[in-house]
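Anyone up for a design puzzle?
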């Protein structure tokens, strides 16, 4: 079992900081929750995700979906990617084997 079987939607946050953003959240909540599920499924299956890699397929804003999942108690690791000169070029998010196991147990408890 996983988080979305035991706790089917919603996973996303409930309140935004201004009326326009709140309206957008309210109108698109189902889409955002489905994006959380796609991101969770990819991570739990061992994928390493980047913003560029997730755009258009897993989530419109991977960083926000990662935050929503973390706020829901899901353990997710990240590390910076560097170019050939050592400059940071972006983050990659993933779950360690221990996190996968822990996150699956959390899903069974919900």
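Challenge accepted. My sequence:
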């Amino acid at each position: 079992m996983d988080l979305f079987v035991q706790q089917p939607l919603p996973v996303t946050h409930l309140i935004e900081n201004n009326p326009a953003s709140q309206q957008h959240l309210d109108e698109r909540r189902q889409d955002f929750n489905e994006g959380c599920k796609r991101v969770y499924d990819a991570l739990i299956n061992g994928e390493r995700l980047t913003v560029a890699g997730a755009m258009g397929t897993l989530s419109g804003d991977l960083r926000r979906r990662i935050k929503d999942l973390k706020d829901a108690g899901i353990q997710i690791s990240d590390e910076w990617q560097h170019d050939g000169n050592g400059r940071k070029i972006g983050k990659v998010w993933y779950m360690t084997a221990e996190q996968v196991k822990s996150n699956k147990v959390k899903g069974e408890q919900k």
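A detail worth pointing out: Helices lie at 3-6, 19-44, 51-54, 62-71, 97-109.
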